[in-house]
Amino acid sequence: MNAQNELAIDVAGLTKSFGRAKALDGLDLAVASGQVHGFLGPNGSGKTTTIRILLGLLRADGGTVRMLGGDPWRDAVALHRRLAYVPGDVNLWPNITGGEVIDLLGRMRGGLDRARRDELLERFDLDPRKKARTYSKGNRQKVALVAALASDAELLLLDEPTSGLDPLMEAQFQQCIHQVKREGRTVLLSSHILAEVEALCDRVSIIRLGRTVESGTLGELRHLTRTSIAVETARPLAGIDALPGVHDLVLEDHHARFDVDTAELDTVVQRLAPLGVRSLTSTPPTLEEMFLRHYGDEETSGAKATAS
Amino acid sequence: MTGAGGLLRFMLRRERFALPWWLLGATLLILVQSTQSQGLYDSAEDLANLRQTIGGNTAAVAMSGPTHLLENIGGEVVFEIFAFASIVIALMNMFLVGRHTRADEETGRAELVRSARVGRDATLAAALALAGLADLAVGLLAFAAAAGTGLPAAGSALFGAALAAVGMVFAALTAVAMQVFESARAGYGAVALALGAAFALRAAGDTGNAAFSWASPIGWGQRTFPYVDDRWWPLAVPVAVAALLGAVAMALLGRRDFAAGLVQPRPGRATATAALGSPLGLAWRLQRAALAGWAAGLFLLGVAYGSIGDSIEQYVEDNPQVAEVLPGGAADIVDSYLSFTVVTLALITAAYAVVTALRARGEETSGRTEPVLATATSRAGWLASHLSVAVLGSAVVLAAAGFGEGLAYGLTVSDAGQVPRLVGVALGYLPAVLLVAAVAVLGIGLLPRAAAAVAWVVVAYCAVIALFADSFDVPEWMRRGSPFAHTPLAPLDPLTATPLVVLAVIAVALAAGGYAGLRRRDLGY
């Protein structure tokens, strides 16, 4: 049935409340099979709640949820054979070694590849003979990562899997995800590390207050934001402020600095050309700026941009 | 030592719920024993009879103390309760010191504290001071309980001081163990072993060569002979030993790194055994140590009860008037005693069953259920794996208790048939025990946050009904509410199948209700 369904995860209008607190408020999420999908949002925006609903641990209040062609609540056990999960906060049994936990989780999922397990232990430099109580946060995360990556699950649900890893391990993780992608498997990656998202993800969904605010490729998202322009012209710059999409203009006769909606960039550049451009620098929006705009309150982030 | 005073106040605050319960428990032990003994042996004649019957019973002496204590009624109270109260107080001291030193180091909480303007040795000093204050309270409360129930004040003061001294030895011993081992768990294991050895040594000393008792902290306390000889000088030994061990702990602390021990923990297995490959394997792995501990504990308690069964018979033969007030008369006195003690053992097993069933909820709230249920494990399979431990574990614990009681009683009356008989009687309580555990399961499914409170209220209710219903004239309908009241009082009454089957059916229905609730609800909340 997966062949007919191009989407590994298809969530529409998902709602979930805990008492009076609304955790999810009409969330949409579409993850195509074989893609690495970034799942971004500030703390408390509902990423973990969404993943727990996908795992059938929480029951959705409203909306539709399909995963791998099944219903995550009803078909939980059957679906779990086909996925692997790394929680954001890895809690392990203090008296059981990391190696035992990896084997246990693998067997309960339906078997794991021993050669790949040993290779991953080497790669992540993890001692499997230590009791879980002695592991640091990063090492506990490695245990969960090795258990997930050593499986041949077709879908990986990763909830901030690298928040405790050092840069060296981060690089190993990225290599592993590239490998997973080459094998045609699907990954939902919740993360705060923007460089990681940029390096790994085909598409990105940004959520805020339990609702999806933006979804698309990184290129598409960039298109929706502003580019900073600094320009010097031979003739005085007049009428720039009247152009559509121009913001935060600082004008001094022949010099101007402003931000422009990337969609309007072409129009603006065409209006500048006849004025005799002497120099022009264009800075594409950084990921940070992009996410800050979506994470934070729209108005405050606009005010900050003016101030800087 | 900088900051030790502030840390001590903080520790007292952290202990404000747990410590009063320990103190209350220890006080109640003495209070109940003193009242009971003074009621049972109210004349010099009764005591003389007791000296004869108990004095000749090696098993009873091994479980209690030196027979020299049986000279007067105060001594008799010390004889019966001192060793047992020592165990409770030693455990209290062990957990007090362990919790605030190594356990905090393991979780990393101590790191925050040590980064502040606090001396390296302040935490240990404050923990030992905390244990000292607790032991002081033990001494005062023991004195108040003994003197308050009419025992001589001088002997009561020594009784309290001896208990406090035993407590301090184990506090200081724990302080050393916490420096040696990297995990609090390993340290607790070592101290518990030492406590077992202390009990065994004094048992050997009281039944044979008294020299053994002088190697045991419990023996040092007992051999002050409160009320009988009232000699204070033996307490110099525990005081000196506690001071020495405390100094050793401080010296070791100064020589080790934070979070390190003197003994490197052995590396564990790099791969899981075949047994650890399913939720069932995991549940048993997590709970096997606890099961072994409970089974061993109830076996020993069974031995303690069984060992004095024969003495009860002799005592009643010498004092026929006692038989008149007991149900069943002289002929059934032993069976009546055995029935009553087996109910007590079964009630403790119910506590084990509740702890075991609630472990499922503990796994859930600590976030460790999430990775398990993210695999191809159903909620039913996960719950059932924990319940399998509760069901089979309860059967094992009951059988161990019955085996201990049957073995000890059988040995004293030279009748091997007592072993299967009492194992059978104990297992008769399995449906009642499981019904209590099933209430916990129902709670986990329907009212997860209240599950523990509900289950413990049921345990307490059953205990009150079983132990005090006769003394307090409890109305019949209240009595009928306890599953233990529906289990035939074997071996006094014959064991019949019908009530057991009914109890089992109710237990299954409650557990099924709990499962139905679990299937519908969110997990982890």
From TrEMBL, chain A:
Residues 9-234 form the ABC transporter domain. Pfam families: ABC_tran, DrrA1-3_C. It comes from the Bacteria. GO terms for molecular function: ATP binding. It is a peripheral membrane protein. SUPFAM superfamilies: P-loop containing nucleoside triphosphate hydrolases. It is found in: Cell membrane. Gene3D superfamilies: P-loop containing nucleotide triphosphate hydrolases. Belongs to the ABC transporter superfamily. This is ABC transporter ATP-binding protein. It comes from Phytohabitans maris. The lineage of its organism: Bacteria, Bacillati, Actinomycetota, Actinomycetes, Micromonosporales.
Automatic annotation (TrEMBL), chain B:
Keywords: Membrane, Transmembrane, Transmembrane helix. This is ABC transporter permease. It comes from Phytohabitans maris. The chain crosses the membrane at residues 77-97, 124-147, 153-174, 186-204, 232-253, 289-308, 337-360, 381-403, 423-444, 451-469, 497-518.
